[in-house]
């Protein structure tokens, strides 16, 4: 699939042609994958002739929007959500693909002291010493926030963090850190790297790291199935993999 799309890009570029069935493709994606789509949009549009319209939100919010009838052509969500939507007939079987995986990272404002997070105990002490810690509100449905909320309970620090937690309803946690609302931010690495003025300290220690697998699927009700599949293919291309790595993600099988 990757080779086929790459060949199409070469032909279209050389001929200056546009595909006969160019379409406006609406893709709805989780926030962690938004920087990837944004970085690739122009190349996809130039190579395919299609127009890309992107909407991003937390995984939980997107699922609710889809359940409430929001129309889309391609969706990018956690792998488990894609499997569930396919089972319920929202996505076309055989038109889904794993796209990427990403872990959770720790960040501070540029110029701020760098906490030690080299092992689990150091990570715990860094959070306990911080005056404020920002992460996605688990109630908002973001996968990183849900996992961190459970992790803090397992580590025995949930109570100590309760009064100094800065719960972000959606979007980029790093914005709150740069604004001075929190000393430390925790979110998926791709979203932390998207914030100017933020310094990535590093990933969570491997013993407590949580990798989220992302996948894409074509709507079973789309009128632009061919265009949606073109985009899904492009998101698996070598060009897309290079962007994934630059933005803090990895191919799903690395």
The biggest sheet, with number of strands, parallel, antiparallel or mixed sense and barrel status, is: 5 strands, mixed
Q: Which shape, going by the Cα principal axes?
A: elongated
Name the strands of the widest sheet in spatial order: 2-1-3-10-4
Mean of residue pLDDT?
91
- How big a fraction of the residues is strand? 25-35%
| Helical percentage | 40-55%
Low-confidence stretches: 10-20
Helices and strands, in N-to-C order?
Answer: HEHEHEHEEHEHHEHEHEEHH
Instruction: Count up the helices.
Output: 11
State the end-to-end distance. 18 Å
Structural class by secondary-structure content? alpha/beta
Number of strands: 10
- The gyration radius over C-alpha positions equals 19 Å
Could you explain the architecture of this structure?
With 254 residues, this protein is α/β, with parallel strands linked by helices. It is 41% helix and 25% strand. It has helices spanning 2-15, 34-48, 59-67, 79-87, 120-129, 143-155, 158-162, 173-178, 189-192, 225-234, 238-246, and strands at residues 24-30, 51-57, 74-78, 91-102, 104-109, 133-136, 165-168, 184-188, 198-203, 212-219. A five-stranded mixed beta sheet has the order 2-1-3-10-4, with helices on both faces. It has a five-stranded mixed beta sheet with strand order 7-6-8-5-9. It is elongated, with a radius of gyration of 19 Å. The model is unreliable at 10-20 (pLDDT under 50).
């Amino acid at each position: 699939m990757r080779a086929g799309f790459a060949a199409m890009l070469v032909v279209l570029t050389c001929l200056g042609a546009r595909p006969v069935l160019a379409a406006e493709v609406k893709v709805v994606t989780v926030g962690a994958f938004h920087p990837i789509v944004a970085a690739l949009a122009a190349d996809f549009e130039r190579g395919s002739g299609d127009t890309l319209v992107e909407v991003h939100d937390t995984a939980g919010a997107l699922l609710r929007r889809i359940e409430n009838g929001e129309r889309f052509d391609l969706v990018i969500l956690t792998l488990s959500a894609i499997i569930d939507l396919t089972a319920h007939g929202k996505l076309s079987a055989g038109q889904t693909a794993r796209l990427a995986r990403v872990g959770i990272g720790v960040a501070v404002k540029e110029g701020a002291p760098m906490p030690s997070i080299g092992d689990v105990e150091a990570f715990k002490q860094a959070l306990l010493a911080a005056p404020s810690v920002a992460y996605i509100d688990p109630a908002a449905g973001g996968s990183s926030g849900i996992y961190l909320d459970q992790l803090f309970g397992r580590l025995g620090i949930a109570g100590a963090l309760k009064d100094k937690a800065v719960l972000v309803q959606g979007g980029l946690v790093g914005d709150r850190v740069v604004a001075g609302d929190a000393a430390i931010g925790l979110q998926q690495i791709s979203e932390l790297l998207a914030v100017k003025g933020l310094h990535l300290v590093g990933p969570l220690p491997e013993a407590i790291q949580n990798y989220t697998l992302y996948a894409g699927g074509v709507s079973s009700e789309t009128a632009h199935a061919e265009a949606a599949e073109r985009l899904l293919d492009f998101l698996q291309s070598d060009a897309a993999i290079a962007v994934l790595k630059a933005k803090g993600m990895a191919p799903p099988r690395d």
